[in-house]
Amino acid sequence: MRICELKQREVINVKDCKRLGFVGDVDFDISTGKMLAIIVPGPGCVWGFLGREKEYIIPFCDICQIGDDIILVRLKEEREKKE
Question: Which PANTHER family match (predicted)?
Answer without folding.
Answer: SPORULATION PROTEIN YLMC-RELATED
